[in-house]
Each structure stands twice: as structure tokens, then as C-alpha cells.
Automatic annotation (TrEMBL):
Residues 68-296 form the Elp3/MiaA/NifB-like radical SAM core domain. Coiled coil: none annotated. GO terms for molecular function: catalytic activity; iron-sulfur cluster binding; metal ion binding. InterPro entries: Elp3/MiaA/NifB-like_rSAM, MJ0683-like, rSAM, rSAM_sf. The keyword Hydrolase does not apply. Keywords: Iron, Iron-sulfur, Metal-binding. This is PA0069 family radical SAM protein.
Length: 357
């Protein structure tokens, strides 16, 4: 199949079965043929926004190799449509598929700011960095309209609480006024996710994300404004972007990034089926090679849940990637480090203003 046969603007090309459901369904070929003959769509392709009102918003992260203690996700599901996204599996807990549903059914936590304020005012809460987008991107397209992420940042500023951010959307530039105020008291750090320098690669891997040009521009603008910014090259995918490590680190360093991190792709749960189906349509000439190389990195399987190895892999390819990053950091990021976030101010601002006595 060719790229032209893709569902336009989507990463996943199918809905996988939800493992939590007793029943599943599939679209039969005769139905697809009927739709084609009648000029009809087999599936609804528009994005649906679903409002939710959870009881809590700050999540304790128990994984020992993620590098954060608490996360906050104002949205579940992500319209960016990154084909490799590890968060896809979490959509099954909400009753949806990790495939197209993940990109088309976006759950919005309408009371996110109220819940965060309750958390930060709690007498038992001790300030520790909370990361926005530990799961799905807080600056995905719907944020432009709803502005929940901006309101969350304003809440962190009000209570002088440290916050980290991970995004691949240039919309973060909209909130530079709030980020600048947070940065002045060392309360924020931003991670820009940049997987490739090649726009063609970006378009097929991450169909609804900001362009590479806009993301590089964002790194530079944040850095110039005094907002600490680093870059995540995640994930590294063999034979797709693995050749770009050195030039990408050099480029983001020149734009002012304070550091670079990475992970190697892992295809847990339904993502293995979604990615395999996608790559055989998008890159039929190298699909088997890429899938085989991913298996070599993860002990012979696409699925790798082992703490300690799942993020960086093992074997010759993983060692080569680690060595390239080590060299790149030494060449382009020597003596740079991001400042430690300030956890000391919050106690004095628990009621939303500085205590005088």
C-alpha cells in the first residue's frame, strides 16, 4: 500500500481490540468494498472531544526509570497521532482503542485547575516537581481553544510551585509570559520533543505535530527568554531516525538547549500491532528490517516491560546509540546543565500569597 492510501492526518491506520472488553469488532473487507463503491467513509474520522471531571489530577509515578515522581495530564488521548506513542495503551483503560480512538477521542479534564489548586493548598502536600504531559501532550491542538494548560501554569505561578513540561508543539510559545515569570524564580523547566530533523520523517511519524522548523525555533525562543529548555530525542527508531543523533544534538545545542535525552522505541501492548500495520503501509521496503532491529534491542520481542532496559534497550545497536549520545554531549553540550527546580518557595505561598508572619 502507498502513503496515498493512508487515513489523512492520522498516525494509526486501524483500531485495535481493547483487551479490557469481552467483545471486539473488526471491519470486514466486504464492508470496505461497499463503502468504496458508494463513496462513503468506513469510519468516522473527525476528532471528538469528551468532557470528564476526575476526582484527582496529580498522579504518583511508580516506574523507577522514568525520571519523574508526579505527573499531570489535562488531556487523555492525543490528536498529534504519533505512531509510536507509549501512551496509546492507556486509552484502553477509558474504554477506547489504542489505535485511531487514541487520536480521535480526546478526553478533557475540565476541572483540572480546580483539582490542582486543591492539591497545592493541601497541608500534607510537600513541594516536589510536577510534570505536565507525563502521558499525553498538554499542548495538543485542542489546547489552543481550551487554554487549560495555560491556566495550570498560572496556578503553579500563584502558588510558587515547581513544574516541568514535555511537549512537541510550538504552542508553548503562547505562554512565554507565564513561563518567564516562573523561570525568574527557578520554577520551570521545558522539554521539547524533537525526533528528527527531516520534515518528511516528522510528517509520517507524527502527523499533527508542529513542524521541525517551528520546534527548533521554539527551543531558541525559550532559551533566549531565559526559560531553561532541553530536548528529548524520543524515541530512537532503528533505520528511521537513528542516523540523526549527532546532527540533531549539534542543532539543538546551537539553539540554546541545556541538555538532550533519549529513549529507544518499544512497542508494548497494542502498539506493536499498530506500529507493525503502519510501517508495512508507510515503509514497505524496510518494514521487516526495522521490526527485526527493534526486536534485537529488546531481547527478541517488540514488547519490553523490563525496568532498567526497556527505555534504552540492550545489545550492539543500543550500545552504539548510547556511545553516540555520549560523544555528542561532550562535543556540543559540554559544561551545560539545567538548574535544579526550586521547591522552597511553595510553603510560603500555600494560601496563594506570601505569608508575612
Amino acid at each position: 500500500m502507498s502513503i496515498s492510501e493512508f487515513k489523512k492526518g492520522r498516525g494509526a491506520q486501524l483500531n485495535t481490540a481493547n483487551k479490557f472488553h469481552e467483545h471486539s469488532h473488526e471491519i470486514r473487507d466486504d464492508f470496505l468494498n461497499y463503502c468504496a463503491s458508494e463513496g462513503e467513509e468506513a469510519e468516522e474520522s473527525r476528532t471528538t472531544i469528551i468532557e470528564t471531571f476526575p476526582k484527582t489530577i496529580v498522579n504518583k509515578v511508580t516506574s523507577p526509570d522514568v525520571g519523574l515522581e508526579y505527573s499531570l495530564n489535562p488531556y487523555q488521548g492525543c490528536e498529534h497521532g504519533c505512531i509510536y506513542c507509549y501512551a496509546r495503551n492507556s486509552h484502553e483503560y477509558w474504554g477506547y482503542s489504542a489505535g485511531l480512538d487514541f487520536e480521535q477521542k480526546i478526553l478533557v479534564k475540565r476541572n483540572a485547575v480546580e483539582l490542582l489548586e486543591q492539591k497545592l493548598r493541601s497541608k500534607s502536600w510537600k513541594a516536589t516537581p510536577i510534570v505536565l504531559s507525563g502521558n499525553t501532550d498538554c499542548y495538543q491542538p485542542i489546547e489552543k481553544e481550551l487554554r487549560i494548560t495555560r491556566s495550570l501554569l498560572q496556578c503553579f505561578l500563584k502558588y510558587r510551585h515547581p513544574v516541568g513540561m514535555i511537549t512537541k508543539n510550538a504552542l508553548v510559545q503562547r505562554d512565554m509570559d507565564v513561563l518567564r515569570e516562573l523561570a525568574q524564580e527557578n520554577l520551570v523547566h521545558v522539554n521539547l520533543s524533537i525526533t528528527s530533523l527531516e520534515e518528511k520523517t516528522r510528517r509520517i511519524l507524527e502527523p499533527r505535530t508542529a513542524t521541525i522548523k517551528k520546534r527548533l525555533e521554539t527551543v531558541e525562543k525559550l532559551s533566549t527568554a531565559g526559560i531553561p529548555v532541553s530536548v528529548m530525542m524520543a524515541p530512537i527508531i532503528p533505520s528511521i531516525n537513528s542516523h540523526e543523533i549527532m546532527p540533531l544534538v549539534k542543532e539543538v545545542a546551537e539553539r540554546g538547549a541545556l541538555g538532550v535525552g533519549y529513549t529507544i522505541v518499544r512497542l508494548n501492548g497494542s502498539i506493536g500491532q499498530i506500529f507493525s500495520h503502519w510501517i508495512k503501509k508507510a515503509m514497505p521496503d524496510r518494514a521487516d528490517k526495522v521490526l527485526h532491529q527493534i526486536q534485537q534491542v529488546h531481547g527478541g520481542s517488540l514488547n519490553d516491560s523490563r525496568f532498567g532496559t526497556r527505555m534504552k534497550g540492550e545489545g550492539e545497536f543500543a550500545s552504539q546509540v548510547a556511545q553516540q549520545f555520549k560523544i555528542a554531549k561532550r562535543l556540543y553540550l559540554k559544561d551545560r546543565e539545567r538548574p535544579q527546580l526550586n521547591c522552597k518557595l511553595h510553603e510560603e505561598f500555600k494560601d496563594g500569597q506570601m505569608k508575612l508572619f
